[in-house]
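User: I'm writing a tutorial on reading structure tokens. Could you give me a worked example: one chain, its sequence, then its tokens, then a sentence or two explaining what the tokens reveal?
Assistant: Sure. Here is the example chain.
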Amino acid sequence: MLIGLVAVLAAQVGLGVSVETVKPEWRDPEYGHRLNQLRHLKVLHPDRPLVLAIGSSRTQMGLSPADMGFADAPGSPLVYNFGQAGAGSLRILLTLLRVLDAGVKPDYVLIEWFPIALAADGPAEEQAKGWAPWLGLADVRRLAPHCDRPLVLGGQWAASRLNPWYVYRLSLMSHWQPGWLRWQDRLTYQWDQLDRFGWLPYPAESVSDEVRAAGIEAVRKQIAATLSHFRVGMGSDRAVRDLLNHCQKQCISVAFYTTPEGPTVRSFYQPAGRAELSAYAAMLSREYGVPLFDASDGFAEQEFADGHHLLRSGAARFSRRLADEHLRGWVKGR
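And here are its predicted structure tokens:
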């Protein structure tokens, strides 16, 4: 019994150490696998300036670097998609800090201008509820300046490490024996469907009108009320400014970019909310010299799965427009 107890404790400690150090992709697959890809790309293309696009699932599915048309040649921009599902301003900041601390310094950073995420408010321990399993101890320290009660976030992280084999069971099985899981429980889509530039395309080439309508209705329930009374949250503003200050110190050029929305989702905005967004973008431009790239107009409802996640053909068209209308001149000018 004593030997068994020691073996169990050793297994718990061993897994806890592994997910903190050599295997971050086991605790946070979206981040860990993308980081591995990004490092590999930098090794293969050391003479190309790195453009890192960070955002939510809109970026994940909507920005395809391979469709931007940049040549595979020295000096040509190397764009990588570091989108993560549900990422708002605080998580975007955390992603940038993680990447920099991992030894990867982009030359340019593109930040998704996602209005619903900019409305998020409150200290980090509130915004980060549910994040604890995929956070590392270093992430808790990175988020501490944005906490009112850092010990609360630290306690959430510590609780998630008490039984790591249970907490990470789906991730571990998805990596080791995905066939033993129901397809609904598998996490393999987070890495085995990525292209080599981090793009995670929508799984279907098209959707029926009924499926699209149901998706739009779900989006309406999630975001319409927030967009109709939109205000930039103080917590989000602080995260955005922290990110911009870090980039200035690191001499990294930054730009925001909008992702397309279908006609129905665009109708959720009220004039006052749009005015608030425009004023906030203008203020950041004055204070930090950060442009906002908008290549999002003119997309039809049929190019989306649910009104704001682009299908593959729409993602290809948007990515090429963003590159041609904004990125080429921006990178060349700097």
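What the tokens reveal: The chain has a mean pLDDT of 94. Residues 41 and 197 are 8 Å apart (CA to CA).
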